[in-house]
Amino acid sequence: MERHITLPLTEELARTLRAGDTVYLTGTIYTSRDAGHKRMCETLAKGEPLPFDPQNATIYYVGPTPAKPGQVIGSAGPTTSGRMDAYAPTMMSVGARGMIGKGARLPEVVEAMKKYSGVYFGAIGGAGALLAKCIKKCELIAYEDLGAEALRKLYVEDMPLVVIIDSEGNNLYETGRAEYLTAGK
User: Fold this and answer.
1) pLDDT band for position 23 (cuts 50, 70, 90)
2) What pLDDT is stored for residue 47 in this prediction?
3) Biggest alpha carbon distance in the chain?
4) Paired residues of 138 in beta bridges
5) How many CB atoms within 10 Å of residue 17?
6) Residues of the chain with pLDDT > 90: what percent?
7) pLDDT at res. 176
8) How, if at all, do strands 151-165 and 135-142 pair?
9) CB count in 10 Å sphere of residue 136
10) Which end of the chain, C or N, has fewer beta carbons within 10 A?
11) Quick one: which of 110, 138, 131 has its CA closest to 31?
């Protein structure tokens, strides 16, 4: 099913998405990779607030390249999501609901998604320049010392994604493989 979604990704909205849905995402998302996630989780462990409100937030696992003159952002392709697997359950426990990246997720992340109504969106790896065209605003909000891994607030319009894992734990990487293997039998 094709869906046009306007963020924030509320629990109610997340529960309507199904693995395999094509989604065009519009709204505010945040960027962070493993170094940023580690820092955010350390901040939470100290009982301190994050530099953004994680409630119903969607985080894009990306380390964008610097913007060229006249551009909002440089190339912004997804990074391997497994790097954030150690941190994703903690981030979901404080309200973050959507994750955008590429690649498989650990069972612990899928269980946290089921518990907190999370959704994992897949972005096309190798299409960073194309995805950057969907980014209309970019603001550095924290961790500038991390360079490309700094925490950024982005405004995106019609960012093309696929729901890889839905809030019920259905996983397109598993169901798609099974459908392929049984096709033609």
Assistant:
1) very high
2) 97
3) 56
4) 154
5) 23
6) 88
7) 66
8) antiparallel
9) 12
10) C
11) 138
Amino acid at 182: T
Residues contacting residue 168 through CB under 8 Å, at least 6 positions apart? 114
- What is the SS3 string spanning the chain? CEEEEECCCCHHHHCCCCCCCEEEEEEEEEECCHHHHHHHHHHHHCCCCCCCCCCCCEEECECCCCCCCCCCCCCCCECEHHHHCCCHHHHHHCCCCEEEEECCCCHHHHHHHHHHCCEEEECCCCCHHHHHCCEEEEEEEECHHHHHHCEEEEEEEEEEEEEEECCCCCEHHHHHHHHHHHCCC
Calpha distance 44→92 (Å, rounded): 12
Q: 70: how many CB neighbours lie within 10 A of its CB?
A: 5
The answer, as to whether pTM is greater than 0.90, is yes
125 neighbors 162 (Cβ within 8 angstroms)? no
Give 120's strand partners.
99, 165
Sign of CA dihedral 15, 115, 9, 21: negative
- Distance, CA of 62 to CA of 80 (rounded, Å): 9
pLDDT for the residue 183 = 66
